[in-house]
Amino acid sequence: MNTPQIKALICDNSASVGTSIASSLAEHSIYAYTRSNNESAVMNSVISEAPDVVICNLTLKDTDVVTLMRKIRETVSDAPSFIVVCDLYNAFIEKQVLANGASYFIAEPINTDELAEAVMAVARRNVAPSCHDPEILVTDTIKKICIPANLKGYRYIRSCVLECLRDKSLLDNITKRLYPVIAEKYSATPSRVERAIRTAIETAWERADKLSIRNVLGYDNSFFNVRPTNSEFIAMLTDKIQLQMRNRIYGQNTCDRISFTGNTCESSRAVL
Questions:
Q1: What is the pLDDT of residue 259?
Q2: How far apart are CA 102 and CA 71, in angstroms?
Q3: Each residue of 8-38: pLDDT tens digit?
Q4: Any bridge partners for residue 261, and if so which?
Q5: Residue 171 near residue 242 (C-beta atoms within 8 A)
Q6: How many angstroms separate the CA atoms of 160 and 184, rounded?
Q7: Which neighbouring-strand residues pair with 81?
Q8: Which residues does residue 2 pair with via DSSP β-bridges, in sequence order?
Q9: Cα 9 from Cα 35, distance rounded (Å)
Q10: Cα–chain-centroid distance for residue 106?
């Protein structure tokens, strides 16, 4: 493995919920384990087992998640990220839990693919220098650009880049070819995908300083006088990740050809 597994604590040790979620996350190479849904059990696990992410219901048996997050931040110096689960979607509740320190809000029934993406997005882990897994690199790069994981546009951008890494010809016609692929994957429409991506880019443009974006994507200041379009942004991210993968696999002085098979890549190279 190129980087240690992400460790996720699920605050529900029931066979019907907690263990089934843990099993699903394991399919995404995430180490997940369960503990009882109460304050002491979660606190003890955070202190002794140091999970990267805590997946927790809005209300526990003896407290609420906002109080729990506050106590954990007061107790440990490197608090885990929190993904809060609610039995129904409520925009006001989502806003409140995110404002109080949660990294992601998800309503039941839980889509395990979405949950796995959220866990990878919010986990506070440094990517190993030797890592060349496209999913990990894409996730890490988007996080550095300050796109919040709770935005739909985050997921769409991530999937767009992964699809373009597999088939770079998609960059030639993003509107008519790429957006429909992403829309089908997430049961959305191409116009909603386009709009959500634009909103995510605008959010990053407002939150991150231009120097940070420039350093992440590798473009000079003159390019960032205006916010990039969706197509420009996706193309820049795709090129950035592809270059990272080549350099990490073979080093700077090689010429590579990379093709994708599932979530892995097969490569051939010629040394310069």
A1: 43
A2: 13
A3: 999 998 878 899 999 999 998 899 999 999 9
A4: 264
A5: no
A6: 12
A7: 53
A8: none
A9: 7
A10: 14
pLDDT tier at 217, thresholds 50, 70, 90:
confident
Contact residues for 46 (Cβ-Cβ < 8 A; gap 6+): 9, 54, 72, 75, 76, 79, 80
Which of 24, 23, 22 has the alpha carbon at shortest distance from 35? 22
| pLDDT at 251 > cutoff 60 | no
Q: Is the dihedral of CA 224, 226, 230, 231 positive or negative?
A: negative
Task: Look up residue 224 and give its DSSP letter.
Answer: G
Residue identified by tokens 């990379």 is 258
H-helix segments, the chain: 18-26, 39-49, 65-75, 91-99, 112-122, 134-144, 152-166, 179-185, 190-207, 210-217, 230-250
Q: Has residue 169 got a pLDDT over 90? A: yes
Residue bearing the bigger pLDDT, 249 or 244: 244
pTM summary value: 0.71
**Six token digits for residue 84:** 């809060």
First to last CA, the chain: 28
The CA distance from 157 to 238, in Å, is 10
Q: Check the CA dihedral 185-108-114-140 and report its sign.
A: positive
Q: Which residues contact 131 (CB under 8 A, 6 or more apart)?
A: 2, 3, 137, 248
Tokens at 207, concatenated: 């939150």
The answer to whether the CB of 11 falls within 8 A of the CB of 60 is: yes
Token output for 61:
């048996």
